[in-house]
């Protein structure tokens, strides 16, 4: 099932005419919204999400949960002035249902364990790319934990989970080196398994640890008991005790990874960008931008109002391991291509299995604009060159589109193919970008 957009349309990336000076209200976090939807659906009482992200990935998650019987009502808050909200009303999960995962890692990985708890067959399908993204960790683990799953033997989509209304659960070993989402998926549904779950990661590396911490924090916030390596448990082992989950009233933080292009604009064009409601404490990997973009030449101040990020127009290269914050790689690579010294981005070989092969895509697209990027075994080596205009292909990858927009600020004549693909997590991107720059550029 292909996303509904014109994949060949070209968007002239606005060129910055001067320093930026803008306040950008960044929509809610994809990762928080989709975890909150899953946890609220598994709870024993209704719950609320305020300021949820409404994007392709989160609407697919909501539609999938509704298809399994969950009530999700949408509204706009008046009394609290809190803006949009979703009220989630859990009910007996059931099939038959067909779930479209699109190309959302969170939907394709977090929902098969939920489906195993449902009564009846739940079929999972998605975009062509979803067939190639790793899912074996979830499928194999669920079988060990007692689920019946029909797939075509590749350990990938499409597949059908024959939910039996309950799952034994218990201990399971997985290799999550290709995606942290395998661990998150099993933990999120773990409280509802008869014996809970004990997940032991056996692989040599584990990406995106902040996202696993986000899972653990959000589980604890709804009353689950979780033991982790960080709370004194064994390394690489997470245990979730069986038990009922509470319905909560949660306000979703802005998506800090989607704040990245706007902060990058201040680095590239100079000037200041303010992101209101930047949380003082968060598990979102995007919070690392404060440190990374400071090292690359900016400065920032976190106040009660939000994050104020200032650039001088000077950009420095960086040598950094992005294994914990892989989803920031495209935006960092774009800034690095405009820097005054080379960069090495390491620890992100698993990006080859993201929305597209991001290492190959970034290398090809930046080089086609005159850049000098080489792929390494686990990342990119970027030597800045004078770039020229041209078409920046995006491979249905939202973060490729925003990376191209960052380059377009500094390089005239960059055209982004299929900017609508940003709808995966940030549907308003072109408007927010134009708003940041002012109608005729900054
Ligand atoms: O759990 C999550 O919300 C995510 C985990 C990460 O996945 P990987 O560990 O597969 O990189 C991240 O890249 C993705 O954007 C969101
Ligand atoms: C890797 C990403 O998404 P997904 O949740 O589909 O894995 C991403 O948003 O950068």
What's a concise summary of this model?
3-phosphoshikimate binds at residues 30-31, 35, 179-181, 208, 327, 354. The chain is an alpha/beta fold and 442 residues long.
What would your notes on this structure say?
The chain is 29% helix and 24% strand. With 442 residues, the chain is of the alpha/beta class. It folds into two domains: 10-28 and 254-437, Enolpyruvate transferase domain (UDP-n-acetylglucosamine1-carboxyvinyl-transferase, Chain, Alpha-beta prism), CATH 3.65.10.10; 30-251, UDP-n-acetylglucosamine1-carboxyvinyl-transferase, Chain (Alpha-beta prism), CATH 3.65.10.10. It has a four-stranded mixed sheet with strand order 2-15-17-16. It has a four-stranded mixed sheet with strand order 4-5-3-14. The radius of gyration is 21 Å and the shape is globular. The mean pLDDT is 96. Bound molecules: shikimate-3-phosphate and phosphoenolpyruvate (PEP). Phosphoenolpyruvate (PEP) is lined by residues 104-106, 327, 354-355, 399, 425.
């Amino acid at each position: 099932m292909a996303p509904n957009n014109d994949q060949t349309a070209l968007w002239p990336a606005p060129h910055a005419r001067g320093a930026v000076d803008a306040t950008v209200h960044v929509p809610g976090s994809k990762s928080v919204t989709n975890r909150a939807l899953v946890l609220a659906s598994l709870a024993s009482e209704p719950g609320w999400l305020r300021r949820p992200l409404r994007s392709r990935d989160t609407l697919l998650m909501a539609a999938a949960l509704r298809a399994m019987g969950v009530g999700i009502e949408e509204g706009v808050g008046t009394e609290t002035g809190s803006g949009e909200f979703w009220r989630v009303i859990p009910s007996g999960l059931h099939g038959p249902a067909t779930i479209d995962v699109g190309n959302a890692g969170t939907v394709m990985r977090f929902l098969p364990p939920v489906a195993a708890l449902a009564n009846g067959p739940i079929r999972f399908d998605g975009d062509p790319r979803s067939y190639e993204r790793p899912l074996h960790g979830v499928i194999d683990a669920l079988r060990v934990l007692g689920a019946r799953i029909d797939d075509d033997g590749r350990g990938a989509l499409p597949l059908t989970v024959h939910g039996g209304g309950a799952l034994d659960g218990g201990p399971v070993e997985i290799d999550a080196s290709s995606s942290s989402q395998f661990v998150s998926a099993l933990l999120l549904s773990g409280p509802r398994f008869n014996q809970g779950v004990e997940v032991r990661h056996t692989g040599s590396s584990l990406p995106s640890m902040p996202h696993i911490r986000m899972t653990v924090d959000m589980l604890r916030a709804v009353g689950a008991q979780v033991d982790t390596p960080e709370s004194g448990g064994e390394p690489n082992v997470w245990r979730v005790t069986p038990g009922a989950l509470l319905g909560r009233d949660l306000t979703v933080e802005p998506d800090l990874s989607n704040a990245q292009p706007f902060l990058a604009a201040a680095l590239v064009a100079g000037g200041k960008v303010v992101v209101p409601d930047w949380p003082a404490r968060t598990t979102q990997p995007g919070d690392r931008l404060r440190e990374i973009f400071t090292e690359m030449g900016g400065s920032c101040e976190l106040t009660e109002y939000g994050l104020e990020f200032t650039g001088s127009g000077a950009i420095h290269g960086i040598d950094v391991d992005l294994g914990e914050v892989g989803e920031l790689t495209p935006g960092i690579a774009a800034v690095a291509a405009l820097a005054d010294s080379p960069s090495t981005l390491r620890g992100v070989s698993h990006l080859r299995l993201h929305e597209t092969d991001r290492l190959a895509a970034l290398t090809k697209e930046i080089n086609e604009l005159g850049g000098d990027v080489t792929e390494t075994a686990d990342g990119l080596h970027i030597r800045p060159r004078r770039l020229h205009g041209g078409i920046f292909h995006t491979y249905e990858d939202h973060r490729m589109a925003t990376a191209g927009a960052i380059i377009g600020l500094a390089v005239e004549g960059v055209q982004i193919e299929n900017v609508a693909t940003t709808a995966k997590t940030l549907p308003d991107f072109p408007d927010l970008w134009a708003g940041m720059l002012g109608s005729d550029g900054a």
